[in-house]
Amino acid sequence: MTETDDATRSANDAGARGTDILTGELSGQQLADGVYVLPGQGNSLAIETDAGVVVVDASGARHAPHMIAELRRRTDAPVHAIVYSHGHHGYNAAVDIWQEHNAERGDPPARLIGHERLVHRMARYRETAELQTRMLAIQFSSRRQVPLAILAKGLALHDLTETFSDSMTVVGGRRPVELLWAPSETDDALAVWLPVEHMLFGGAATPGFTIPNIGTPLRTQRLTIRWADTLDRLAALDAATLITEFGPLVEGDAVRHQLNETARALRWLRAEVVKRMNAGMNEHEILADMSYPDALFDQAWMRPTYGAPDYIVRDLYREENGWWDRNPTTLHPAAPEAAAAAVRSAITDPAAVIARARQLADAGETQLALHVIDVLALDPTDDQYGTEARALKAELSRTRASEVEPFVSKSCYHSSARLLDGNNLSWTALP
């Protein structure tokens, strides 16, 4: 989940998970002697060791002062290392604040540790910095528009000082802290294993409050079976306690059960999508044909709160197919404006199209109303009907946001509505 402080604040407006979709449920709790959760983005860990404190995820600038204050309320030990649970923005944007804290205390700089693939992610993020900011503006600025320049300030990247490939022991002694490569939401994700306590921090592999967020609308592929394989490997550790990325603590037999059942659901999705692809169905046909058994998906940790089963279906389809949707019209398309104008020119009664879209909306068929209004709304002609169609599409988008559960979908609908409020069709119009 790529986040910043402003994105976190805007999440409050979405009404998902109470007040803040990016707040960890365990914030402020002590999980064992010398192991506690700081008030950061998600369940950010502090682990006291013989070498000092190991912090897992330094979070952003809004969180860091509160995290440091909480840490100092509990211990005066130096911050020995900061571990990056994965490479998404926001989780370690405030590393510089932590390093300044060390310097003010006269402590050496903290080691900055993550998986070796995170180096490549940072290079990609630097190359596509504006794109990352634009996607953030759409995906997290739910009911209000945060200017791109402000969002960009929360996307600070701090290079690692140490990397590993498969596993690494950060410190030994009385409380060893081990890192395990756990590719899942990202290919650079890791899990933290405390063998003495049999305590596992699953990181991005175990969000804890939502079905794995595979296939979210604006993100790269997340490889469903790779995620399932990671969950099986973590289950094999036979942990007594699982610390999820955002959700509650999981203990005892429930740890293996939750990990294995999530992996089983992901493999079930793969099998069902492959069966339909083999029958020749396209992406939209598969989406319409799928249903999701309660035995697998009606679980607290599998709710479509952030991710969604149909997101995963789309990602699975993308794994095996190219970009073509099997419609010959889209194979070598005309420019969007020209195509929309041509469709508009075939409509003799634009008012009837708007009336029909409103009819469908009044009947509770918001999605069908969106399909109908697009016949007019996509045409950039700035006349009475075009303006009215785009205003209606904005209204329908907000209604649709209230009808769906995934936070990301809600945000995308609200962001689309704001764009249309300005009578715009292109996302280049973001402020």
Tell me what the structure shows:
The protein has helices spanning 5-11, 64-74, 95-105, 117-127, 129-140, 148-153, 224-235, 253-278, 283-289, 294-297, 309-320, 336-345, 350-362, 366-377, 384-403, 407-421, and strands spanning 30-32, 35-38, 44-49, 52-56, 79-83, 111-115, 162-164, 167-171, 177-181, 190-194, 199-203, 241-244, 249-251. By secondary structure, the chain is an alpha/beta fold. It folds into three domains: 5-180, 4-Layer Sandwich (Metallo-beta-lactamase, Chain A), CATH 3.60.15.10; 206-332, no CATH class; 333-429, no CATH class. Strands 1-2-3-4-5-6-7 form a seven-stranded mixed sheet, covered by helices on one side. The chain has a six-stranded mixed sheet with strand order 8-9-10-11-12-13, covered by helices on one side. A hairpin with a 2-residue loop joins β1 (30-32) and β2 (35-38). α15 runs antiparallel to α16 (407-421). The longest helix has 26 residues, at 253-278. The radius of gyration is 23 Å and the shape is globular. The chain starts with a helix and ends in a 10-residue tail after the last helix.
Number of helices: 16
Overall average pLDDT: 93
> What strand line-up does the widest sheet have?
1-2-3-4-5-6-7
What is the C-level CATH assignment of the largest domain? Alpha Beta
